Amino acid sequence: MHTIRLEIEDSKLDIVLNILQNLKDNVVSKYDLINNNIEQKDFIKISHKSFENSWDDKQDNIYDKFL
Q1: What 3 state SS string does the chain have?
Q2: Alpha carbons 63 and 67: distance in angstroms, whole number
Q3: pLDDT value at position 31?
Q4: pLDDT one-digit tens code per residue, 26-50
């Protein structure tokens, strides 16, 4: 089994979903739609820098073993 990841513009999503739905049943076993809009990506970029500045490995190392 293989996984294919596609990044599709919002305006083209309906076309791709239609293609997937019209494939034979045994071609695609499962597909998920993950919504990663630009606003969310920008927020992640901004918050990641702040997160790196506040991360303290020595202090947080105690909790890492539970991950």
Answers
A1: CCCCCCCCCHHHHHHHHHHHHCCCCCCCCCCCCCCCCHHHHHHHHHHHHHHHHHCCHHHHHHHHCCC
A2: 7
A3: 81
A4: 888 888 887 777 777 777 777 766 6
